[in-house]
Protein backbone atom coordinates (compact mmCIF):
# COMPACT_ATOMS: atom_id res chain seq x y z
CA UNK A 1 0.00 0.00 0.00
CA UNK A 2 1.16 3.52 -0.96
CA UNK A 3 4.13 2.00 -2.79
CA UNK A 4 3.52 4.29 -5.74
CA UNK A 5 5.21 7.29 -7.26
CA UNK A 6 2.23 9.63 -6.97
CA UNK A 7 1.96 9.18 -3.21
CA UNK A 8 5.70 9.64 -2.76
CA UNK A 9 5.61 12.81 -4.85
CA UNK A 10 2.68 14.50 -3.10
CA UNK A 11 4.01 13.52 0.32
CA UNK A 12 7.46 14.93 -0.45
CA UNK A 13 5.85 18.15 -1.70
CA UNK A 14 3.95 18.51 1.56
CA UNK A 15 6.93 17.79 3.80
CA UNK A 16 8.93 20.37 1.81
CA UNK A 17 6.08 22.91 1.70
CA UNK A 18 7.28 26.55 1.80
CA UNK A 19 4.88 27.33 4.64
CA UNK A 20 7.16 26.09 7.42
CA UNK A 21 9.99 28.52 6.67
CA UNK A 22 7.50 31.40 6.51
CA UNK A 23 6.25 31.07 10.11
CA UNK A 24 8.79 33.66 11.23
CA UNK A 25 6.79 35.89 13.57
CA UNK A 26 4.21 35.51 16.31
CA UNK A 27 1.63 37.12 14.04
CA UNK A 28 2.21 34.45 11.42
CA UNK A 29 2.09 31.71 14.03
CA UNK A 30 -1.30 33.08 15.11
CA UNK A 31 -2.57 32.89 11.53
CA UNK A 32 -1.25 29.34 11.18
CA UNK A 33 -2.99 28.24 14.36
CA UNK A 34 -6.29 29.85 13.36
CA UNK A 35 -6.33 27.59 10.30
CA UNK A 36 -4.70 24.49 11.72
CA UNK A 37 -6.98 24.15 14.75
CA UNK A 38 -9.69 22.86 12.40
CA UNK A 39 -7.39 20.00 11.37
CA UNK A 40 -6.87 19.24 15.06
CA UNK A 41 -10.65 19.09 15.50
CA UNK A 42 -11.46 16.99 12.44
CA UNK A 43 -8.75 14.49 13.33
CA UNK A 44 -11.13 13.29 16.02
CA UNK A 45 -13.83 12.71 13.41
CA UNK A 46 -11.62 10.15 11.68
CA UNK A 47 -10.55 8.65 14.99
CA UNK A 48 -14.09 8.25 16.27
CA UNK A 49 -15.28 6.71 13.01
CA UNK A 50 -12.55 4.09 13.34
CA UNK A 51 -13.48 3.54 16.97
CA UNK A 52 -17.07 2.80 15.96
CA UNK A 53 -15.82 0.33 13.34
CA UNK A 54 -13.60 -1.79 15.57
CA UNK A 55 -15.23 -1.44 19.01
CA UNK A 56 -18.78 -1.29 20.34
CA UNK A 57 -19.76 2.24 21.39
CA UNK A 58 -23.54 1.73 21.51
CA UNK A 59 -25.84 -0.10 23.90
CA UNK A 60 -26.28 -2.97 24.38
CA UNK A 61 -22.59 -3.85 24.18
CA UNK A 62 -21.68 -6.73 21.90
CA UNK A 63 -18.34 -8.42 21.22
CA UNK A 64 -16.86 -7.41 17.89
CA UNK A 65 -14.04 -9.91 17.55
CA UNK A 66 -10.53 -8.91 16.45
CA UNK A 67 -9.71 -7.44 19.85
CA UNK A 68 -6.29 -6.44 18.57
CA UNK A 69 -7.94 -3.88 16.26
CA UNK A 70 -9.83 -2.41 19.19
CA UNK A 71 -6.66 -2.34 21.25
CA UNK A 72 -4.82 -0.40 18.53
CA UNK A 73 -7.47 2.27 18.24
CA UNK A 74 -8.18 2.55 21.96
CA UNK A 75 -4.51 3.19 22.69
CA UNK A 76 -4.67 6.09 20.26
CA UNK A 77 -7.96 7.34 21.72
CA UNK A 78 -6.49 7.25 25.22
CA UNK A 79 -3.57 9.49 24.31
CA UNK A 80 -5.42 11.82 21.94
CA UNK A 81 -8.53 12.37 24.03
CA UNK A 82 -7.07 12.17 27.55
CA UNK A 83 -3.35 12.86 27.30
CA UNK A 84 -1.19 14.01 30.21
CA UNK A 85 -1.53 17.74 30.71
CA UNK A 86 1.29 20.13 31.48
CA UNK A 87 1.66 20.24 35.25
CA UNK A 88 -0.61 17.27 35.89
CA UNK A 89 -4.09 16.08 35.03
CA UNK A 90 -5.39 15.08 31.61
CA UNK A 91 -6.56 16.91 28.50
CA UNK A 92 -7.53 16.23 24.90
CA UNK A 93 -5.13 17.39 22.23
CA UNK A 94 -7.82 19.65 20.82
CA UNK A 95 -8.32 21.40 24.14
CA UNK A 96 -4.56 21.63 24.58
CA UNK A 97 -4.30 23.29 21.17
CA UNK A 98 -7.14 25.68 21.98
CA UNK A 99 -5.29 26.65 25.15
CA UNK A 100 -2.12 27.21 23.13
CA UNK A 101 -4.05 29.56 20.86
CA UNK A 102 -5.29 31.57 23.83
CA UNK A 103 -1.77 31.71 25.25
CA UNK A 104 -0.36 33.38 22.14
CA UNK A 105 -3.44 35.44 21.30
CA UNK A 106 -4.47 33.55 18.14
CA UNK A 107 -7.95 34.20 16.78
CA UNK A 108 -10.26 31.52 18.18
CA UNK A 109 -13.48 33.08 16.92
CA UNK A 110 -13.81 30.89 13.79
CA UNK A 111 -13.34 27.57 15.61
CA UNK A 112 -15.40 28.71 18.61
CA UNK A 113 -18.27 29.79 16.35
CA UNK A 114 -18.07 26.49 14.47
CA UNK A 115 -18.27 24.46 17.68
CA UNK A 116 -21.09 26.64 19.01
CA UNK A 117 -23.04 25.95 15.82
CA UNK A 118 -22.53 22.21 16.29
CA UNK A 119 -23.69 22.49 19.91
CA UNK A 120 -26.88 24.18 18.72
CA UNK A 121 -27.66 21.30 16.37
CA UNK A 122 -26.32 22.72 13.09
CA UNK A 123 -24.79 20.06 10.84
CA UNK A 124 -21.03 20.29 10.33
CA UNK A 125 -21.19 20.98 6.59
CA UNK A 126 -23.62 23.83 7.22
CA UNK A 127 -21.55 25.15 10.11
CA UNK A 128 -18.52 25.30 7.81
CA UNK A 129 -20.27 27.92 5.67
CA UNK A 130 -19.63 30.55 8.35
CA UNK A 131 -17.87 33.44 6.58
CA UNK A 132 -15.28 33.63 9.37
CA UNK A 133 -13.91 30.24 8.32
CA UNK A 134 -11.28 30.48 5.53
CA UNK A 135 -12.26 28.75 2.29
CA UNK A 136 -9.18 26.50 2.39
CA UNK A 137 -10.21 25.31 5.85
CA UNK A 138 -13.74 24.70 4.59
CA UNK A 139 -12.42 22.52 1.77
CA UNK A 140 -10.04 20.59 4.01
CA UNK A 141 -12.58 19.82 6.72
CA UNK A 142 -15.22 19.04 4.09
CA UNK A 143 -12.88 16.45 2.59
CA UNK A 144 -12.21 14.90 6.00
CA UNK A 145 -15.90 14.73 6.86
CA UNK A 146 -16.73 13.12 3.53
CA UNK A 147 -14.17 10.38 4.13
CA UNK A 148 -15.19 9.89 7.76
CA UNK A 149 -18.92 9.77 7.04
CA UNK A 150 -18.96 7.98 3.69
CA UNK A 151 -15.71 6.08 3.31
CA UNK A 152 -15.27 2.35 3.77
CA UNK A 153 -13.35 1.38 6.93
CA UNK A 154 -10.09 0.78 5.05
CA UNK A 155 -10.43 4.17 3.32
CA UNK A 156 -10.95 5.95 6.64
CA UNK A 157 -7.96 4.09 8.08
CA UNK A 158 -5.84 5.15 5.10
CA UNK A 159 -6.73 8.81 5.54
CA UNK A 160 -6.07 8.51 9.26
CA UNK A 161 -2.77 6.70 8.79
CA UNK A 162 -1.16 8.38 5.79
CA UNK A 163 -2.86 11.77 6.12
CA UNK A 164 -2.32 12.06 9.87
CA UNK A 165 -0.50 9.63 12.14
CA UNK A 166 2.24 8.48 9.78
CA UNK A 167 2.67 11.94 8.26
CA UNK A 168 2.53 14.44 11.10
CA UNK A 169 5.84 13.61 12.81
CA UNK A 170 7.64 14.73 9.64
CA UNK A 171 5.41 17.78 9.17
CA UNK A 172 5.54 18.89 12.80
CA UNK A 173 9.30 18.37 12.89
CA UNK A 174 9.56 20.85 10.00
CA UNK A 175 7.32 23.32 11.84
CA UNK A 176 9.30 22.86 15.06
CA UNK A 177 12.65 23.36 13.36
CA UNK A 178 11.58 26.56 11.64
CA UNK A 179 9.64 28.28 14.42
CA UNK A 180 11.79 27.50 17.45
CA UNK A 181 12.62 31.18 18.04
CA UNK A 182 8.95 32.15 17.71
CA UNK A 183 7.94 29.59 20.34
CA UNK A 184 9.60 31.47 23.21
CA UNK A 185 6.21 32.89 24.18
CA UNK A 186 4.25 29.77 23.24
CA UNK A 187 5.30 26.96 25.61
CA UNK A 188 1.95 25.19 25.35
CA UNK A 189 2.18 25.03 21.55
CA UNK A 190 5.77 23.85 21.83
CA UNK A 191 4.59 21.10 24.18
CA UNK A 192 1.83 20.18 21.71
CA UNK A 193 4.30 19.81 18.85
CA UNK A 194 6.82 17.84 20.88
CA UNK A 195 4.15 15.53 22.26
CA UNK A 196 2.74 14.80 18.80
CA UNK A 197 6.14 14.21 17.26
CA UNK A 198 7.01 11.69 19.96
CA UNK A 199 3.65 9.90 20.13
CA UNK A 200 2.98 9.66 16.41
CA UNK A 201 6.49 8.62 15.45
CA UNK A 202 7.04 6.02 18.16
CA UNK A 203 3.55 4.73 18.89
CA UNK A 204 0.55 5.96 16.92
CA UNK A 205 2.09 5.83 13.44
CA UNK A 206 3.02 2.14 13.70
CA UNK A 207 -0.35 1.32 15.29
CA UNK A 208 -2.21 3.07 12.47
CA UNK A 209 -0.20 1.18 9.84
CA UNK A 210 -1.06 -2.14 11.49
CA UNK A 211 -4.74 -1.26 11.66
CA UNK A 212 -4.79 -0.23 7.99
CA UNK A 213 -3.10 -3.47 6.95
CA UNK A 214 -5.61 -5.46 8.99
CA UNK A 215 -8.60 -3.69 7.44
CA UNK A 216 -7.26 -4.16 3.91
CA UNK A 217 -6.55 -7.81 4.74
CA UNK A 218 -4.44 -8.31 1.63
CA UNK A 219 -7.33 -7.52 -0.73
CA UNK A 220 -5.95 -5.80 -3.89
CA UNK A 221 -9.12 -3.75 -4.41
CA UNK A 222 -9.08 -2.42 -0.86
CA UNK A 223 -5.38 -1.67 -1.09
CA UNK A 224 -5.89 0.31 -4.31
CA UNK A 225 -8.76 2.26 -2.74
CA UNK A 226 -6.66 2.95 0.34
CA UNK A 227 -3.82 4.21 -1.85
CA UNK A 228 -6.15 6.60 -3.68
CA UNK A 229 -7.50 8.00 -0.42
CA UNK A 230 -3.99 8.51 0.95
CA UNK A 231 -3.07 10.67 -2.04
CA UNK A 232 -6.23 12.75 -1.69
CA UNK A 233 -5.57 13.24 2.04
CA UNK A 234 -2.10 14.60 1.32
CA UNK A 235 -3.42 16.89 -1.40
CA UNK A 236 -6.10 18.20 0.97
CA UNK A 237 -3.45 19.03 3.58
CA UNK A 238 -1.36 20.80 0.94
CA UNK A 239 -4.40 22.93 0.09
CA UNK A 240 -4.80 23.82 3.76
CA UNK A 241 -1.18 24.96 3.94
CA UNK A 242 -1.59 26.94 0.70
CA UNK A 243 -4.45 28.80 2.36
CA UNK A 244 -2.27 29.76 5.32
CA UNK A 245 0.42 31.07 2.97
CA UNK A 246 -2.16 33.10 1.08
CA UNK A 247 -3.20 34.82 4.31
CA UNK A 248 0.45 35.50 5.14
CA UNK A 249 0.78 37.27 1.80
CA UNK A 250 -2.42 39.24 2.34
CA UNK A 251 -1.53 40.38 5.86
Properties at a glance:
DUF3050; Haem_Oase-like_multi-hlx; 251 residues; globular; mainly alpha; Heme Oxygenase, Chain A; two-stranded antiparallel sheet; 75% helix; Antimetabolite toxin biosynthesis protein MgoB
Report on this structure.
The protein is mostly helical. The protein has a single domain (5-250), classed as Up-down Bundle (Heme Oxygenase, Chain A). Helices cover 75% and strands 2% of the residues. The protein has twelve helices and two strands, in the order ααααββαααααααα. It has a two-stranded antiparallel ribbon. Strand 1 (83-84) and strand 2 (90-91) form a beta hairpin. The longest helix has 31 residues, at 220-250. The mean pLDDT is 92.
Portion in strands: under 5%
Share of helical residues: over 70%
Regions with pLDDT < 50 over 5+ consecutive residues? none
CATH architecture: Up-down Bundle
Q: Looking at the structure, what is the overall shape?
A: globular
User: How does the helix and strand content classify structurally?
Assistant: mainly alpha
Strand order in the largest sheet? 1-2
One letter per element, helices H and strands E, the order comes to HHHHEEHHHHHHHH
What is the radius of gyration? Answer: 18 Å
CATH topology: Heme Oxygenase, Chain A
Mean pLDDT: 92
Distance between the termini: 41 Å
Instruction: List how many beta strands DSSP finds.
Output: 2
**CATH homologous superfamily descriptor:** Heme oxygenase-like
Count of helix runs? 12
* Tally of separate domains: 1
**The level-1 CATH class:** Mainly Alpha
**How many strands, which pairing sense, and closed or not: the largest β-sheet?**
2 strands, antiparallel
InterPro entries: DUF3050, Haem_Oase-like_multi-hlx
Protein name: Antimetabolite toxin biosynthesis protein MgoB
Pfam family, one: DUF3050
